[in-house]
């Protein structure tokens, strides 16, 4: 029997854009299969056939187009041989960590490598929404500048000074955003987490109740994961509690916002403007939302850089290598921390 037959088997779902070298090196200790199943039905069949001995699975967000979500139904078909699923992303709402744990399968994500690039994107959207830059961009494209020489007729906007930023979710990305926003001269930073953070992690931000943040923040910065507890957290009731003229910025997940209520409050002016990197039904956004003149929206570009994508893809490989060598992934997701693997 050849040595290659005895190597652990890794199944790769999704494209590798930057980390070809890392994947080539992985082949020295593992047999790497590239999933070619055209759809979910065929993928489930292949899990009982050519993928039946797979031990480690790597997946990307885009691979959901091929397999569908890694929900309880799909996970029930995974071979007993599977030890871990390594997801290429900080958010892993496409994967059910509890269903995996029930099958004793570890789930890893890429938790901190996305922080810097995502925070850069967040700051761009926040400042753009605060300053009405999207209105200016639309006016420029519409040819409104000649008839309105003063900023093409765009309403006068606001500087950061005197404004309170309310950060919902002061995790790695939220703290990075806070650090990047400080030099711009905002008056105050407040934050809401499930629990108050140690002072050294607060970096000058004040802990607030959720309702107080809604009532006092001039800008609401959303940085929370999408799960059953946060789905449509920002709904009609919540938006009604926000300050008149608030700016909302979301680079987390679109599903944390009820878009029907969001559109209503953007249209009536209660929410003055918004900066969005994410929407609920990606990649098919509600045109009514993204075409609003007071919405600055981009197509989920938070980590869309060569350097960040390379680091993320390489970290997926490191999770697999560690699982092969030690039996444990590096970045086990929080929902599985109490499970004994």
Automatic annotation (TrEMBL):
Pfam family, one: 2-Hacid_dh_C
GO-annotated cellular components: cytosol
One GO MF term: hydroxypyruvate reductase [NAD(P)H] activity
Coiled coil regions in record: none
Superkingdom classification of source: Eukaryota
Keywords associated with the record: Oxidoreductase
Residues of the D-isomer specific 2-hydroxyacid dehydrogenase NAD-binding domain: 124-302
InterPro entries for this protein: D-isomer_2-hydroxyacid_DH (IPR050223), D-isomer_2_OHA_DH_cat_dom (IPR006139), D-isomer_DH_CS (IPR029753), D-isomer_DH_CS1 (IPR029752), D-isomer_DH_NAD-bd (IPR006140), NAD(P)-bd_dom_sf (IPR036291)
Keyword Oxidoreductase part of the UniProt annotation: yes
Cross-referenced PROSITE patterns: D_2_HYDROXYACID_DH_1 (PS00065), D_2_HYDROXYACID_DH_2 (PS00670), D_2_HYDROXYACID_DH_3 (PS00671)
Every D-isomer specific 2-hydroxyacid dehydrogenase catalytic domain range: 19-333
Family: Belongs to the D-isomer specific 2-hydroxyacid dehydrogenase family.
Protein name, entry field: Glyoxylate reductase 1
Organism: Wickerhamomyces mucosus
């Amino acid at each position: 029997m050849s040595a290659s037959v005895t190597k652990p088997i890794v199944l790769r779902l999704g494209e590798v854009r930057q980390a070809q070298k890392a994947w080539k090196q992985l082949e020295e200790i593992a047999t790497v299969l590239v999933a070619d199943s055209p759809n979910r039905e065929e993928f489930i069949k292949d899990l009982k056939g050519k993928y039946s001995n797979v031990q480690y699975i790597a997946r990307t967000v885009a691979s959901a187009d091929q397999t569908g979500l890694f929900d309880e139904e799909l996970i029930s078909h995974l071979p007993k041989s599977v030890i871990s699923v390594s997801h290429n992303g900080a958010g892993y709402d496409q994967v059910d960590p509890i269903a995996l744990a029930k099958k004793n399968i570890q789930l890893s994500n890429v938790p901190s490598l996305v922080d810097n690039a995502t925070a850069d994107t967040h700051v761009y959207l926040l400042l753009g929404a605060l300053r009405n830059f999207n209105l200016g961009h639309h006016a420029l494209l519409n040819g409104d500048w000649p008839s309105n020489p003063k900023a093409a007729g765009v309403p006068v906007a606001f500087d950061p000074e005197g404004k309170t930023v309310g950060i919902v979710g002061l995790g790695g990305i939220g703290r990075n955003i806070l650090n990047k926003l400080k030099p711009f001269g905002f008056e105050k930073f407040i934050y809401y987490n499930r629990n108050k953070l140690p002072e050294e992690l607060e970096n000058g931000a004040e802990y607030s109740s959720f309702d107080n943040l809604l009532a006092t923040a001039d800008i609401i910065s959303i940085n929370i994961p999408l799960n059953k507890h946060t789905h449509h957290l920002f709904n009609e009731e919540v938006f009604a509690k926000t300050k008149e003229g608030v700016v909302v910025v979301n680079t987390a997940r679109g599903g944390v916002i009820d878009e029907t209520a969001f559109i209503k409050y953007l249209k009536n002016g209660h929410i003055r403007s918004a900066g969005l990197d994410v929407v609920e039904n990606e990649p098919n956004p509600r045109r009514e939302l993204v075409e609003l003149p007071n919405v600055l929206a981009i197509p989920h570009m938070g980590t869309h850089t060569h350097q960040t994508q390379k680091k993320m893809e390489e970290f997926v490989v490191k999770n697999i290598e560690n699982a092969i060598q030690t039996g444990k992934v590096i970045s086990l997701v929080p929902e599985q921390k109490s499970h004994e693997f």
